[in-house]
């Protein structure tokens, strides 16, 4: 059940070294390394090409059409944080734009992930302030209803706790629980090393059919080649 009207000022962020260790890896690698967990729904997209972020979550629960809690959340942001905002119900209004981005950047924010709308895309691109959102929408919002800051939120079907690690790139957004950050970073590094070996074999012309030992299982299922 959502808590309304609460701002938690003390949260336990993922270990900084673990966040730094995760930051080089693409979302797909992190997702696979974590056992194919933690992905947000694919409708959350970068608002400009090349946007990418990795940081610890300051969570926000918004009310539809109301961005008051984003201003409240700005005060809780520390260097290396990502603001991650869900909504009590679906809303594509333009909760966030260039002015709030300027405020968050001054606090050290790495970017924003929001299950809602965003505007001022050209300005955000010029600032290189990464935003991943449900929609781009010029429609503005009001400041009238209480939500919460730093409570567990569900954002695009993914549970985000304050202090979790959020990684986002052109392929999507993945949430790594704070307690698993170091383990997932190590698994991602191992996975990437293994992929480099496969990449070399593919470059040399080897087929996935042989590299992955697929021919036997395909034959057992009755796959037939006809000339």
From TrEMBL:
Its cofactor is a divalent metal cation; Mg(2+). Homotrimer. Mg(2+) binds at residue 120. NCBIfam families: ligK_PcmE (TIGR02798), PRK09262.1 (NF006731). Its EC number is 4.1.1.112, 4.1.3.17. Belongs to the class II aldolase/RraA-like family. Catalyzes the aldol cleavage of 4-hydroxy-4-methyl-2-oxoglutarate (HMG) into 2 molecules of pyruvate. Also contains a secondary oxaloacetate (OAA) decarboxylase activity due to the common pyruvate enolate transition state formed following C-C bond cleavage in the retro-aldol and decarboxylation reactions. The lineage of its organism: Bacteria, Bacillati, Actinomycetota, Actinomycetes, Kitasatosporales. CDD domains: RraA_family (cd16841). GO terms for molecular function: 4-hydroxy-4-methyl-2-oxoglutarate aldolase activity; metal ion binding; oxaloacetate decarboxylase activity. GO terms for biological process: carboxylic acid catabolic process; monocarboxylic acid metabolic process; phenol-containing compound catabolic process. Gene3D superfamilies: Ribonuclease E inhibitor RraA/RraA-like (3.50.30.40). This is Putative 4-hydroxy-4-methyl-2-oxoglutarate aldolase. It comes from Streptomyces viridosporus (strain ATCC 14672 / DSM 40746 / JCM 4963 / KCTC 9882 / NRRL B-12104 / FH 1290). Signal peptide: none annotated. It is an enzyme of class 4 (lyase). It holds the Pfam family RraA-like. Substrate binds at residues 97-100, 119. InterPro entries: LigK_PcmE, RraA/RraA-like, RraA/RraA-like_sf. The keyword Metal-binding applies.
